[in-house]
Amino acid sequence: MSAQRQPSRPLWRLSAVALGLAAALAAGAAQAALFEDGEARKAILDLRARANQNDEQRQAQAAAIKQMQEQIQLLQRSLLDLNNQLDQAKGDNARLRGQLEQTQREVAELQRKQKDIVQSVDDRVRKLEPQSVTLDGRSFTAEPEEIKAHDDAMALLRNGEFERAVPALAAFLRKYPESGYRDSVRYWMGNAQYGARAYKDAVLTFRAFATAAPEHPRAPEALLALANSQAELRDTKTARRTLEELLKLYPKSEAALAAKDRLLTLK
């Protein structure tokens, strides 16, 4: 008896099983695909978000850089303007300095001219007004013409022009009999007469001076010169008396020392 054959499954069941298995596989694959697509989408979204964020940062940085560039340009323009202003200020200062120096020179010149004018006026006024004079320890005032007449006459005496000095000094005494120069002029006129060898006139002049001005600082010298004039006239006796008078009146004067020596030579 031949082996009994197994009953075969219906084909429709096999197909159903295959279809179920395929469906299961397809569902798993679909789920896997869905999972993979979600992760990829999330990753893509993250990348996009990051890209957007980077774009925003780049835009912000670009805007900041642009703003900084604009500020730098503004600062550069400001610095350029400031440099131009400084250059202009330097130029203005140089011009002002030049004007100031010119003004100072003009002021100095005006001051010099003013000083010259004031000095000229002072000189003219001084020539017209009485001036203070100090002579032989005495102070007095004298007219400009009086001073000039005195100085001119004394210049002749200092130059050794005795014969011209005598009349000049005599003329001064006649014109200015009350002058503060009077006593000094008498003394020097006696010296001029002695220098001109007019000894008699010198004796009269020196005696008049010594009698009129015994307190004058040149009185001792006048007595000594008087004694010398008398000695030149060979009036030795009178000369000795004059020297003794000098020693008595002015014992501590320098003229007294000379008088002592002169007495030793007179016989």
TrEMBL record:
Outer membrane lipoprotein BamD-like domain boundaries: 149-267
Subcellular location: Periplasm
Signal peptide stretch: 1-32
Chief place where the protein resides: periplasm
Keywords: Cell cycle, Cell division, Coiled coil, Periplasm, Signal
InterPro entries linked: BamD-like, CpoB, CpoB_C, TPR-like_helical_dom_sf, YbgF_tri
Residue ranges the record marks as coiled coil: 58-120
YbgF trimerisation domain span: 65-132
Functional description taken from the UniProt entry: Mediates coordination of peptidoglycan synthesis and outer membrane constriction during cell division.
Family the entry assigns: Belongs to the CpoB family.
Annotated HAMAP family: CpoB
Protein name, as recorded: Cell division coordinator CpoB
Organism: Ideonella paludis
Lineage: Bacteria, Pseudomonadati, Pseudomonadota, Betaproteobacteria, Burkholderiales
